[in-house]
Amino acid sequence: MTFARTAFAGLTTIAAGLGLALTTTGTAAAAETGSWHAYGNTNPITSSSATWHCAGSKTVATSVVAQVCAIRSAGGGAVQGAVIVRNNRSALFSVSASMDLYTSSGAGLGVWTCASSGVAANSWSVCFGRTLAQSSPVNSMGDAKGVDLGTSPFV
Fold it and tell me: What is the DSSP string of 61-109?
């Protein structure tokens, strides 16, 4: 994973400047396994009844883009993170992806990783994290094939 939350970055810099040691415990444990879902030529966002808040698309390779999203269920009580990959090539493209999920108060809800998988030519695939019960706003940071996808807006 190439992304990292930096909530303690300023505090660490101050402590280091004073010659102090600072130990922080991250809220995210070891990554869980996410799951790939192929969507073919159907856009996963517009075909869903859930609300998706996504960062902008980033180029992963020539003719392949990805974006990280935080998703809220139609009923509002469940959330999950996702990485959407769009392969505009005429051949299969292999990609791995990962994402986290954080509340607006900074509580880490988890990290999920999808092992390398083939995204079919001219199609969408999505790496989903686990669905969690959560009513407060969440956002997600992610990567695909080592490319930092940034941070989604809160949903």
Answer: ETTEEEEEEEEE-TTSSEEEEEEEEEE-SSS-EEEEEEEEEEETT--EE
